[in-house]
Amino acid sequence: MIDSLSSYDGYLESVWFAGLAYIYKPDIIQINNIYEIYTSSEYWNYFPRSPMVMDFNFRNERFIIINNHFKCCGDGVLDLNITNDEETRRYFASYLLKEYVDTYFLNENVIILGDLNDSLLDDPQNNVFQTILDDQDNYLFADLEIANGNSSEWSFPTWPSHLDHILLTNELFFEFENTSSDIQTIKIEEYLPGGWSEYDENISDHRPVAIKLLLDSNLDVANFTKPKTVFFNYPNPFSSETTFSFKSSADLNKIVIFNLNGQKIMSLNVHQGQSSIVFNAKNFPNGIYIAKFLSNNNKMATRKLVLIK
């Protein structure tokens, strides 16, 4: 397939059952690394296919995609006392992915996706994704509206059910909320002469789920050559004050703080030669905030802030 796609490249790891893969355009994204996680034997029960991480840059921003294919089937009942219970396997796979992101990619743009083989709408005691669904400040299933919608749009029409999901971390909430962003199930069978029978026989019994995110339009691929902006804050989490530190070759301008509703709550002007600035949040409620580092109104970097009093 790669050979027949002009200007695309691909990566396949197929040591274990069927494997996982990526297809991408190397002139659009800059690959930093592709690797598998949870590969050792103690995780094989939870991950029949080891999750595959793609770490790449796009328009001068780092993105992490974690591709998955969870264990299928089950009786719809989550029984954590049964190690080989299909729902239990998917529950711990979800838990481990969240733990990995929380540990290693706390302030990165992360997308977890794939055939996760379970419904988002199960009741809480049987929902394998409940740990993630409960953390609404940090995680969002972008396809939740599809799951709640008409079954004609679901990814697994032969049951029917919606089993293929795209999960975003809060660094991408604003981009997803943009009216130009979109998520939908792609009905490829409508473009084939044999319809669903042809698609099901030759391609998959699942439809693909696709997402489009509107990112900063004033950044372009040429920015790969620019030095990466250094932008961090300490402490984080913090109770009242945190100090931003930054370094970049660009002319620094300001730091803008948003709440999770997308409302700007503060703007901190950065003067020439300045390398740090204090953010005092004593008058703001507990919660998650997003800090954007802007140069001439272009977003250079983003940080997730955790305020706990």
Overview of the structural elements:
By secondary structure, this protein is mainly beta. Helices cover 13% and strands 34% of the residues. The protein is built from five helices and 17 strands. β13 and β14 form a beta hairpin. The chain is globular, with a radius of gyration of 21 Å. The N and C termini lie far apart (54 Å).
Radius of gyration, CA atoms, in whole angstroms:
21 Å
String of helices and strands: EEEEEHEHEHEHEHEEEEEEEE
Please give the count of helices: 5
Q: Could you give a short account of the major beta sheet? A: 6 strands, mixed
Q: State the shape.
A: globular
Distance N terminus to C terminus?
A: 54 Å
**In CATH, what is the homologous superfamily of the largest domain?**
Endonuclease/exonuclease/phosphatase
Strand order of the largest sheet: 3-4-5-6-8-7
Strand content: 25-35%
**CATH class placement of the largest domain:** Alpha Beta
CATH architecture of the largest domain: 4-Layer Sandwich
Tally of strands:
17
Q: Which class best fits the helix and strand makeup?
A: mainly beta
Total number of domains: 2
Uncertain segments: 218-227
Instruction: Give the helix proportion (percent range).
Output: 10-25%
